[in-house]
C-alpha cells in the first residue's frame, strides 16, 4: 500500500504526514509535487495542511488548478481514498470534490490548540477503526475553518451520514462553547457521496505520538491500512 | 482596457470581518452604520481586448469567486 502526500508551494504539514506514515506505521509514503500529472500507483492520496500559494485569493483557490488536481479528481472518481487535512480540506471544497466552503473563523483569530471531536461515521475507509460517538482530542491550527454550506446541502450531508466529525465538549455534547470557529452544525469533517473523499480541519497526523500530547489521530491512518488489507483479502 | 471584478460575501453569509469593522466605525463616532461587508476588487488589464462573456464569467465564477459564499460583479472602467 502506497500513500501519496501532495506538496504544493506553501504546504507545511507534508513532512508531518510522511513522518507519521513512515515512522509510526511503517507505511510507504512519498511526496508528490503539485506539477505532477499522474497519481497512478498510489492507493491513498493525502492533501496536507499548510498555506498553499500563500492562501492568495482564497484558501485553496489556486491549488485547485495545480496540474496534479486533475489526476486527483480522476483517482477520486475511481474510488481511491483522498484525505484532505486543513488546507487540504479547503482545496477539496474549492475543487468541488466536497460541498460547502471554509471561511474565516467566526472569532477572526487564527486558532492553534487541541479540540475535542465526536466521531460520527465509521463506515468510511478513514474511520472504520473507530467507534461512533467516540470522543477524540486532536489539534486544530487554522484561520479559515468555519464550515459553511446552504441548508439543503447540510441536510443532505446529515441524512446521508456524511458528517464524519463534529466539534464537541470533552463529554461529547455539542455545546456552543465547544465550537471553536463557528462551523455550521459543529462540522469539522465531511465525506463525499461514495465515502472515499474525506476533508477535515483537525490534524490527525499531529496526534500520533505520545510526546505530541495525543495519539487519537492514529485511528485514521490505521483505518486506511486496515481498509487496504480488507480490499486485498 | 481594464476589467474590474468586485467580489463580496453573499448576503446570507455572515461576514465577521464586516461585523468587526462596523464596530470600529462606531468607535469613530458614527453610531449607526448599516451592515458592512468586506470583499475584494480584482483588476485585470486586457491590452488585447477582453474575452467573450462566457469565458469571462467562467473565470469569475470558477476562480475569482467561490459561488458557495460569494457574489461577483464585473465592470469595465474607462
Provide structural commentary:
The complex is a heterodimer of chains A (233) and B (78). Helices cover 24% and strands 25% of the residues of chain A. Chain A contains 5 helices and 11 strands; from the N terminus they run E-H-E-E-H-E-H-E-E-E-E-H-E-E-E-H. Chain A has helices at residues 14-24, 67-78, 87-94, 151-159, 218-232, and strands spanning 2-7, 28-33, 44-47, 82-85, 101-103, 111-119, 135-142, 146-148, 163-168, 187-191, 197-200. In chain A, strands 2-1-3-4-11-10-9-6-7 form a 9-stranded mixed beta sheet, with helices on both faces. Chain B contains 2 helices and 3 strands. Chain B has a 3-stranded antiparallel beta sheet, covered by helices on one side. The longest helix of chain B has 12 residues, at 16-27. The A-B interface holds A 57-58, 61, 65, 93-94, 99-101, 103-108, 148-150, 182 and B 9, 12-14, 16-17, 20, 63-64, 66, 68-69.
Q: Helical percent range of chain B? A: 25-40%
Number of strands of chain A: 11
Cα Rg of chain B: 16 Å
Share in β-strands of chain A: 15-25%
Spans of chain A of at least 5 consecutive residues whose pLDDT stays below 50 are: none
Largest sheet of chain B: 3 strands, antiparallel
**Low-confidence blocks of residues of chain B:** none
> What topology, given as strand order, has the largest sheet of chain A?
2-1-3-4-11-10-9-6-7
Mean residue pLDDT of chain A: 96
**What percentage of residues of chain A falls in helices of 4 or more residues?**
10-25%
Amino acid at each position: 500500500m502506497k500513500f501519496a502526500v501532495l506538496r504544493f508551494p506553501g504546504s507545511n504539514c507534508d513532512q508531518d504526514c510522511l513522518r507519521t506514515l513512515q515512522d509510526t506505521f511503517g507505511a510507504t509514503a512519498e511526496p508528490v509535487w503539485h506539477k505532477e500529472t499522474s497519481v497512478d500507483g498510489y492507493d491513498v492520496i493525502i492533501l496536507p495542511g499548510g498555506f498553499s500559494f500563500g492562501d492568495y485569493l482564497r484558501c485553496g483557490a489556486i491549488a485547485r488548478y495545480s496540474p496534479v488536481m486533475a489526476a486527483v479528481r480522476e483517482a477520486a472518481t475511481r474510488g481511491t481514498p483522498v484525505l484532505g487535512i486543513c488546507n487540504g480540506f479547503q482545496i477539496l471544497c474549492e475543487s468541488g470534490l466536497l460541498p460547502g466552503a471554509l471561511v474565516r473563523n467566526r472569532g477572526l483569530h487564527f486558532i492553534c490548540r487541541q479540540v475535542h471531536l465526536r466521531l460520527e461515521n465509521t463506515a468510511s475507509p478513514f474511520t472504520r477503526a473507530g467507534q461512533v460517538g467516540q470522543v477524540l482530542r486532536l489539534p486544530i491550527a487554522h484561520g479559515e475553518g468555519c464550515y459553511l454550506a446552504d441548508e439543503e446541502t447540510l441536510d443532505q450531508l446529515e441524512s446521508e451520514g456524511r458528517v464524519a466529525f463534529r466539534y464537541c465538549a470533552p463529554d461529547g455534547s455539542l455545546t456552543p462553547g465547544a465550537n471553536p470557529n463557528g462551523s455550521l452544525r459543529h462540522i469539522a469533517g465531511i465525506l463525499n457521496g461514495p465515502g472515499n473523499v474525506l476533508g477535515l480541519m483537525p490534524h490527525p497526523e499531529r496526534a500520533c505520538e505520545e510526546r505530541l500530547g495525543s495519539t487519537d489521530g492514529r485511528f485514521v491512518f490505521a483505518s486506511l491500512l486496515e481498509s487496504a488489507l480488507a480490499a486485498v483479502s | 482596457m481594464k476589467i474590474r471584478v468586485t467580489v463580496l460575501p453573499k448576503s446570507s453569509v455572515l461576514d465577521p470581518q464586516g461585523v468587526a469593522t462596523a464596530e470600529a466605525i462606531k468607535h469613530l463616532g458614527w453610531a449607526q452604520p448599516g451592515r458592512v461587508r468586506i470583499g475584494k476588487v480584482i483588476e485585470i488589464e486586457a491590452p488585447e481586448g477582453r474575452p467573450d462573456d462566457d469565458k469571462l464569467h467562467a473565470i469569475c465564477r470558477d476562480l475569482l469567486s467561490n459561488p458557495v459564499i460569494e457574489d461577483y460583479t464585473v465592470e469595465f472602467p474607462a
